[in-house]
Amino acid sequence: MFTGIIEEVGQLADIKRGSQSAVLHIRCQKVLEGTKVGDSIAVNGVCLTVTSMDGQGYTADVMAETLNRSSLGNLVRGSRVNLERAMPADGRFGGHIVAGHIDGTGTITDIFRDETAVWYRISAEPGVLRYIVEKGSITIDGISLTVAQVTGQDFSVSIIPHTQTNTALADRKAGDIVNLETDIIGKYVEKLLTPEESGKKSGLTAEFLAEHGFL
């Protein structure tokens, strides 16, 4: 489990591509502290297992499924990546609950500044947008952010310049693909409200929630 608070921006030192998979060699320092082979580190929001380490970085294998469903397949040597170690049991939540299993990708359609913030507008598929709500949480390339606006085609986030400067978002431009993970709570609620998919009937219904003041 992760929190969406980026610990370090690493750099892709090398990528070895197979016919359906890849091995990433990521140059970094901070996330190596206390890390051992077999631990999990989120790379641009994707949970990957550390397979080897040296004094300057680590390697991680990327399966075909992960390459197909994320933006990791677009990385090239020298790409900067957002890194976060799995949260320790006694750690603090600075963001929100992040699984490191992305729901899909989005495309940055616009980046603009106002007086105190940087805005990113991102288009996404309906299957992803359905779980994105205004003032809710969204993970973009591993970064926990608050949704500012949502439409039927896209959503927007407003971030402080510090967040842009200290993450790989500083490298993004209009047209770039980003990894998206929606708030896991919404997906669980939907599952509970649609028990027919599992063939079981549940007492948790919209009427029950409304009756008890939850809707």
Describe the structure.
The protein is mainly beta and 215 residues long. It contains five helices and twelve strands. It has helices at 64-69, 126-129, 161-165, 184-193, 206-211, and strands at 8-17, 22-27, 40-43, 46-54, 57-62, 80-85, 104-113, 118-124, 137-140, 143-150, 154-159, 177-182. Strands 1-2-5-4-3-6 form a six-stranded antiparallel barrel.
Shape: globular
As a percent range, the share of strand residues is 35-45%
Q: In sequence order, what are the helices and strands, one letter per element?
A: EEEEEHEEEHEEEHEHH
Average pLDDT for all residues: 91
**Rg:** 18 Å
Order of strands across the main sheet: 1-2-5-4-3-6
The CA-CA distance between the termini, in Å, is 29 Å
Largest sheet: 6 strands, antiparallel, barrel
Low-confidence stretches: none
Q: Summarize the amount of helix as a percent range.
A: 10-25%
Structural class: mainly beta
Number of helices: 5
Number of strands: 12
